[in-house]
Amino acid sequence: MIQGGIIAAVYAALTLITPIFSYGVGQVRISEALCVLPFFTPAAIPGLFVGCALANLGSPFGMADIICGSIASLLAAYATSKVKNKWLAPLPSVLLNGLIVGLMLSTQIPGQAWWAAILYVAGGQAIACYALGMPLLFALDKFRGKLFGETRRKEE
């Protein structure tokens, strides 16, 4: 529970201190680097869900973003926990956030094409999850036992 709480707090803080990057179609949330954490520990699943819900309290898209963004994070975190290949760990977040948040934003922004919103959100997710998340994953992998216990099997 402590790990989940820390993850939630860090996710929310990283999102809220960088609002210019955190909301809208062109978002690249620095906090999304944390999407790799379910690869190591199941505590990250509720942590990312709660962190996203808290962060989206500051969203200009209100309840739609709180609900859809949090559900997207929950589903992506769960899917990430099932991934066996570390290079694919960020992919659920890229695909699910792109689809769910992109569709939500296309309903909230007048004239926004759904397909473009999906592509933009997925692109921002790819930048955050791969450019920031993969280095985080490799750095944490060196200390996996000390940080997370042996909750995840050793990888190839």
Automatic annotation (TrEMBL):
Keyword Transmembrane helix: yes
Domain of life of the source: Bacteria
Entry's transmembrane regions: 6-26, 33-57, 63-80, 87-107, 113-138
Protein keywords: Membrane, Transmembrane, Transmembrane helix
InterPro entries: QueT
Name assigned to this protein: QueT transporter family protein
